[in-house]
Amino acid sequence: MTLRTDITSARADFPLIAQASDAYLDSAATSQKPDCVLRAVDAYYRESNANVHRAAHKLAESATDAFESSRATVAAFLNANRNDEIVFTRGTTESINLVAAGLAAGLAPGDEILISELEHHSNIVPWQMACQRSGARLVAACVTPGGELDMQDFRAKLNERTAVVSIGHVSNALGTVNPVKQITQLARAVGAVVVIDGAQATAHIDVDVQAIGCDYYALSGHKAYAPMGIGVLWGRFDAFDALPAWQGGGEMIEHVTIEASTYNVLPYRFEAGTPNVGGAVGLAAALQYLRSFDQSALRKHEHDLVAQARSGLAQIESIRIVAEPSEHTSVVSFVSSAGHPQDIGTLLDQQGIAVRTGHHCTMPLMQALGLPGTIRASFALYNDQSDVERLIKGVEKAVTFL
Known about the structure:
Layout: H1 15-19, E1 23-24, H2 35-47, H3 58-78, E2 86-89, H4 92-104, E3 112-116, H5 125-134, E4 137-141, H6 151-157, E5 162-168, H7 180-189, E6 193-197, H8 209-212, E7 216-220, E8 231-235, H9 237-242, E9 253-256, E10 261-263, H10 277-290, H11 295-314, E11 319-321, E12 331-336, H12 341-350, E13 353-354, E14 356-358, H13 363-369, E15 374-378, H14 385-401
Parallel strand pairs: 1-13, 3-4, 3-5, 5-6, 6-7
Antiparallel strand pairs: 2-8, 7-8, 9-10, 11-12, 12-15, 14-15
Helix pairs in contact: 2-10, 3-10, 4-5, 11-14
């Protein structure tokens, strides 16, 4: 297969982007969907819609084939060892909750769960709940003024009491890429279970779970050009197999009596109820779409957009770029002495420029940085230089108005 190297041509693949006059710079919140994904989901519901794994008729067989084929596509994308290491969820939030609830059963007072100040609330709150259930203690490694995980502090807080390490692959607020392979190696040395929040990484980084070496990896489809409401929890088979069942109901059972039940094999033990088959089909189409591009060309395209945005925004007197990590993805966060982030975001919206403002579900990070929030512009493969130029001009106009 010939890989696409002209990334700018991707803009035409996204109906909402191609037809809209606005500059959409909020892909870290949710990405737009290419036509191939929309067609795949539409085709599933038009041609193959049925419940999976349950009926003997041909339509159900077709739906089951589509669902399990999607599982295989995800496994290949992540370089999983086995297809049954892929559990479909609603997204990263549900995936982390599943792991946290399962691991909580094995935690005890004196155990520690190590996260960082960079984390999204979805990688904080589930662990707080696990600590409340088990008596374990939640510990957070510090962030540097430059917006990077303080590895010296991480090492200092990692010890023989650390039972779980859960770290984001990429910061949604700053774009910081964490050294997850190194983190995993350090955590394994003390016997900790390692969970990686990959919500912001999937669309921007080649994810290889075997190379990382972690126990669990969570992702959301809607951050990577797939539909909302579909996500994945990958787990090493032996780690997954040791987790207790989380939700009860259909599909996850083997045999049920009034007195007791036995549970299904992986991955179905963690997929209670009717799954989001259309979402899984859409996710597979999105990942195949991502793989149709030359990855080095794609990374360069996004890197160039971020560099252009940082350079242009830095020329505006009242603007300060928040954190400049040495390794980052397609996020630029900034603040202005001219006004509150919300005010600037509103003025940008009036100019047809969509950005995100606020704490970005990272309140502890904002507290650590001494900020009420930031203005965040996040880029995707469908953005181009004209979007960045509009952002810079729009910010200049907004701060002048304020």
